[in-house]
Amino acid sequence: MLELHKTLEPMRAAEFRFVPHHIGIMMDGNGRWARQRGLSRLEGHRHGTQNVRRALDACAQFGIRVVTLYVFSTENWGRPRDEVEGFFELLAQVIDYETENFRRQGVRLIHSGSLDGVPPVLAEKVERAVALTHGNDAYLLNVAFNYGGRMEILRAAQNIVADQIPAATVTEELFDRYLYTAGLGDMDLVIRTGGDQRLSNFFPWQSARGVFYSTKTFWPDFDVSELRRALEFYNRCVDVP
Ligand code: IPE
Ligand code: IPE
Ligand code: MG
Hints:
By secondary structure, the protein is of the alpha/beta class.
C-alpha cells in the first residue's frame, strides 16, 4: 500500500530562510478529487489517507518537525454513515501499517480529540500507537481525530476549574498546558487544501498568530511542490521589516 521509508532526512531545510516549527494541515477535497475521476467518495479518502505518508516525508525534508493533521472533525459525524464507517476502516488500516514505521523513524504520535463514540477497535489502535511512540522526539505528528477547537478550549477550562487553579495564575502558558497540544508550540502555518477558506474549528488557540494558506489543490494531489509553494507564501508573510 504505502511505501516504506527508512529515514526522514531534512534535505531541503536550507531552501527557506524561515521554516515553520509547527504546521497544521486541513486535508480537504478527497470527495471532489474522487468525483472528478468518476470514483466513489471512499476511493477519494483512500487516496487521501495514502497521501499522508508523502506529505509527511515532504515536511521532514524541509525541516518541519511538528505537523498537525485534521483527520476527522466533530462536525464530520454528520456525514452519511457508510462514509464515516468506511473512513474509519481506512484509518485503522493506516494506523496498523504506519505505527511500526513511526516507531523506527522517531515519530511521536499525539492524538488531539476525544475517543468517545469512536468504535472501540479503532480507539484502541489510536491509544496503542500513541503509547508505542511515546518515547520518540525527532518528529511530532499530532492527529486531530474527532477534534473540535471549541470543545478543546472548553475542556481545558473545565479541567483548570476542576484542578482548582487560582484565577490569578491562569496565564496563557498555563492554559496552553491544558490543551491537547501541550508542549507542541504555536502553529506557525495552517494549510487548507481544496480551495475553501473556512477555518472549520481547527485549533483556534494554537493558530491565533499563524499564517493561513489556502490552495485549490485537492488533498490527494498535495505533494512536495505544493508544500514548497506554501512555504514560499509563508516566507513572504513573515519576512517583514
Ligand atoms: C476531507 O475531504 C476529508 C475529511 C473531511 C474526512 P472531504 O471528504 O471533505 O472532501 P470534499 O471537501 O467533499 O471534496
Ligand atoms: C475540514 O473539512 C475537516 C477535515 C479536513 C477533517 P470538511 O470538509 O469537513 O470541513 P467543512 O465542512 O468544509 O467545514
Ligand atoms: Mg470537505
